[in-house]
Amino acid sequence: MSNLNHNSYRYLGFVTVALAVIAIASPVVSNAQTVKDPEGKARESAQEYKKSQDELINEFGDVEDMLYSKDKKGCAMKASMFGVVAKKYRQGLSVEEAVDIKIMQPLYNNIYKKIRKTGLEKALLNNMVGYQKCVANAQPNSDAGAQYDMSLVNDACASLNAAIVDTLVSIKKRRKIDGVFKKYQRKNIDLTGTTYENIPDAALMFIGSLYKTSQTKEYLDVVEMGSNISSGCRS
User: Fold this and answer.
1) 196 or 27, which is more confident?
2) Which of 147, 157, 209, 223 could form a disulfide with 141, with the two C-beta atoms 3.0–4.6 Å apart?
């Protein structure tokens, strides 16, 4: 899940606690009672499970505030999550099918609403642009070492992201590759610290790949490819 793989420990830890709370909240049922009224006990367990999840939602509030920090790492995680949910949307899955953890469903639902409002193509582009703005305006982390590491990765990935967005806009407007290629040939984006650091001229390679894909695929496929490239930078 891109950078989400690294950042999701915070969320997974929360889910572990949530499940533990749910388990504690569930009533202990004796074997004799289960045999007497198995359907009744099943309904009771389901009701307790729903009640526990509702209580957790009320206690922890907005899932986005819990998942995403205000620093550059939070920007990366939020953008990557959007990409993950967008894939579920494109597969035609309902929110309930996409995620069975109730406390996460409002987050998925909000992303689905954004996609329905603008269309998937525009929503993915907005997410990439939003990532750039978020990184530029993120709050510094109080840990100097953590701040350095997340800046090294996300500043570079935001620059690559800008090249990808420029390329997608250029393709949409049916411009030749020369203009955007020359622009980023001069910029020479340094991707040190990212997953692409060992790829020579990575930005130029991705620009070429997007243009090549646009010759045989629909524009939405090219945009989704660009979104995946952006997310992959911060994995």
Assistant:
1) 196
2) 147
Question: Which of 170-203 are b and which e, b meaning 16 or more Cβ less than 10 Å from the residue's Cβ?
Answer: bbeeeeebeebbeebeeeebebebbbbeeeeebb
What mean pLDDT do residues 64-71 have? Answer: 85
Q: Which one-letter amino acid corresponds to residue 83?
A: G
CB-based contact 233:134 (threshold 8 Å): no
Residue 157, amino acid: C
For the question of whether the overall pTM of this predicted structure is more than 0.70, the answer is yes
- DSSP one-letter code for 196: T
SS3 state at 164: helix
Q: Which two tokens stand for residue 78?
A: 């939020």
Convert the pLDDT of each residue in 89-130 to its tens digit: 999 999 999 999 888 999 999 999 999 999 999 999 999 999
Tens digits of per-residue pLDDT, 125-153? 999 999 999 999 999 999 999 999 999 99
Q: Is 28 left (phi over 0), alpha (psi -120 to 50) or beta?
A: beta
Asked if residue 184 lies in contact with residue 207, where contact means CB atoms within 8 angstroms, the answer is: yes
C-alpha 82/C-alpha 3 separation (Å) is 12
